[in-house]
Amino acid sequence: MIQVKKKADLQNLLNSYRSAGQTIGFVPTMGALHEGHLTLIQKSREQNHRTVCSIFVNPTQFNNSNDFEKYPVTIPQDINVLEAAGCDVLFLPSVLEMYPANEPVETYHLGTIEYILEGEYRPGHFQGVCRIVDKLLDATQPNELYLGQKDYQQCMVIAKMMQLKDHRIGLQICDTIREPSGLAMSSRNLRLNQSDKAKASLLIETLRNIKKNLTAGDTSPHIAEARAILTTEGFEVDYVEVTSAIDLSPIKIWDGREKAVALVAATINQVRLIDNLFLN
Predict the structure, then answer these.
(1) 228 strand-pairing partners
(2) Coil, strand or helix: which one is 128?
(3) Which residues, 6 or more positions from 85, have their beta carbon under 8 angstroms from its beta carbon?
(4) What contacts 194, CB < 8 A, 6 or more positions away?
(5) Active site residues
(6) Quick check: 63 pLDDT over 90?
(7) Which of 17, 227, 242, 249 could share a disulfide with 219, CB 3.0–4.6 Å?
(8) CB 53 within 8 Å of CB 90
(9) DSSP string of 57-118?
(10) Is the model's pLDDT at 22 over the cut of 90?
(11) pTM for this entry
């Protein structure tokens, strides 16, 4: 695996692959890699000649400085994991490499999706996500971009940004990978103690309960029950929602046919977790 820290070096390397007629798959990460990331790497390797992974803890997407400072950094282990997984190129830029001094800040006009759910509780988050992914796509210019469904709203935001910026790149959203308990794999799980990690499986349990019991009609009783269960178990609940899977608009009365997704965000002992589940 080749490690690169400068955009210019990365572009020269990837241009040599393209000149040889090779396709490139790209997996952007913030490190602390887990099986979910490796599934994306494997998918890219199956579909492309070369696979690039980036590790960059992006400061502009953290609206909470404490969260940024506590984000797990495990680069030596991550390098070993990527080498074992057969990744071809690791891009490890510095903050200054991605955000040069005095660079103008681009604004992305994302519409309503920027301000609901995660956007409501993390102001500015999706602007930061778009900034870094836009920069990474410019640097790599891959054939395919691979993202995980756990961050479903983020996937939709990135798709919108790609459309706005005319990034002609395939976007593949891959299934959430879960631990045996059902807990969605996440780098943040490293911050959970054993007791809280056991409790965290309640997120997917409440979503599965909504899916099991949801029928055409009012969704609010199912949402209220899920919130109550999580709150009783010590979670601070930001949201539990049933929404359209197409645009994340809330579904108050479900017709039994509209493609729907349930989403949750809740914090246990200062570790904020999210999850989602398609309902039909």
Answers:
(1) none
(2) helix
(3) 38, 41, 42, 45
(4) none
(5) 37
(6) no
(7) 242
(8) yes
(9) --GGG-S-HHHHHHS---HHHHHHHHHHHT-SEEE---HHHHS-TTPPPP----GGGGTSTH
(10) yes
(11) 0.96
